[in-house]
């Protein structure tokens, strides 16, 4: 499977460089360095080169590499529009992925709500985040930016006598301008896994 992922990443990069958009650096919100494009992705320095993608110190041959390459292929020149925030199910053609999105992006966080709350400042710092708008509700919430033009808003409810804990994840309004719908679902899943890794690193 990993070999298949690596081939998809390189195929996407080859496709990108075979017809490189003139304004790609601006569209990506990246800096051009030689043949490469440098920006921040999933809280780490990311560099796209003709021979592949580096995230931090690691060459990406798995899901993150696929998502970053899809972002590079699909990104549009328009700026990110954060609000009004949009539920995943409200994006066109999202229905086939909606169930998996709930399971792998939202429900995966439910057992860890208290731990996430305690680490929320570190999570926002790591993932270029900020406080969510006051009107989103929840017991606590924050926004993170896994890709330069894709913002996710996580809204958390703590368990009480009447209701179990719950988590809702919303997207910046025009996120689908920068990734295909299955890519958006996977960005949610990978970002949630990244969120879960941060409290463990600071414990």
Automatic annotation (TrEMBL):
It holds the Pfam family DUF3786. It comes from the Bacteria. This is DUF3786. Residues 21-193 form the DUF3786 domain. It comes from Desulfonema magnum. InterPro entries: DUF3786.
